[in-house]
Queue: 4 jobs
Job 1
Amino acid sequence: MNSRKSLDRVPSWVPATGHALRHAGVHFDAVRIGGFLGEDVAYRLMEFTDFQAGPIVREATGERNLYFLLPPQTAATHAWPAPVRALSRNGRSEAFVGIPALDGLTWPLDWRSRPTDEEPFVEPGLLHLMVTRAME
């Protein structure tokens, strides 16, 4: 049985309805992984964490990217192999990530894994390990 707790409070960066763009590097950093590789990494991470991986946002259209949300200022602590891309506030470029509400109509975005009080973010080192394993 999954004993996952729901959030006692919703993070300020999660919109109440629909979806909204949030600036990467402010409330969170993000690691973007597209298509099958993104789904593979998400599954590995969720299986390893007993399905309590932290927040992962999935796009239902286009390249079907997955965005793994990390604590702010942590994405650059690892060298991410191509085609994986770290999104953060690096002074050279701006990056925005679409964030869905926790409930209601949020298409074309949804949560592959939601933030919880216990896991408000994906752990960067563990994500890097799962990316490395998926690309072997």
Job 2
Amino acid sequence: MSDVDDQAVPIDQDEARSMLPFLLAAGILVLVVIGIVIATLMSPAEKNLTDSGQLAVAARNFIQSRSDGGALDPAVVCKGFDDNRSPLKTAVEGGPKLDIVGLADSKIDGDRATAAVTFRADSHDTTATWAFTRADGNWLVCNS
């Protein structure tokens, strides 16, 4: 071995290292997480939908409440809804599982809207024009 390899290299460990950069980074990370949580609580994703997206949610909620011959949920229909004139009347009578396929051609006029809703019952797709009304910021399915 050479003389260079045998010599000990002194290490200066007297220098105190600061935790300040780590603490600042951790503090910034905590602030970002708190900001994301507050933003999520103030504006949930469901409220960030377009009117057409909100109509699709209303149609889906209505179809899910009636799927498998289920009872009508009054929270998804407008006041005075007549189940005998329901857009799903013929499909619900058979009691099949219902699924929404799509919503198109939505026309919104203030708090009233219409849209072509396509739903599936027993592997058969049906499209019909549905009426909607906005009440308390939510779209509800109506007869007309």
Job 3
Amino acid sequence: MLNRNFLFPSLIILLGAASLFVISQFDKPMFQDASVDAAFFPTVVTIAMMVISAVLVFQHWQKNKLENKESSQKKEAPIFSKLSIFGVAYLIGYAFLIHILGYLFASLIAFALYLIYFKVKKPLYYVIAAVFVVSVYYLFGEVFVIALPDGIIL
């Protein structure tokens, strides 16, 4: 039966395969003296997402196999929930903010809005989010010598 435990991981696997093709078409920069090229991290993330999705599909298949033996009827969750719609809208907004403001400011804003949306009151989480964003920015910029998006405004 088609449900979100099968549909979404399968969709990620298909999109990942398409992404790997697109990533392989990236230009090789000649001006950048880095230990890895621009395709390395997107490739690693895409492969990791595809492997995790394949594991989720396999787990769903195993669970259905067991439930069919027990022949128990359960009510399935809807394919789209309010939280999944929020997640998609959040990621689209974050991608738009990165294009406009650049990685650093967009990530700081996005993490803060995420914590506010879920009503997180502990200031430590906001500090950890900010330290994480700045650490990633420093790691990519200074250690890996890979420029993160600057944005068109800032």
Job 4
Amino acid sequence: MYARRRRGYFLIMGGCLVLFVSAATFVRIWSLPAAIALCVVALLLPPIAAIVGNTRGKDDRWWDEPPEDPETREARKSQAWLDELERRKRR
């Protein structure tokens, strides 16, 4: 589950590095405004990479979620059923 996020993060950060290095080495020779534009785009990519690297997928467990086991699930179902019966008896 972490491999997908790590791969996305490193792809975006690699693109950022390529943009910055290419702007500083050879794009500035042909066009200074284009090199500045590449640097601005490279400046915007690290926050996007951080968001991609920290976004939880559908299958990912969050850090404070307890693992879902069948006994816990059944206990919650039976407790909800008992609570419903209690409410019916009070009426």
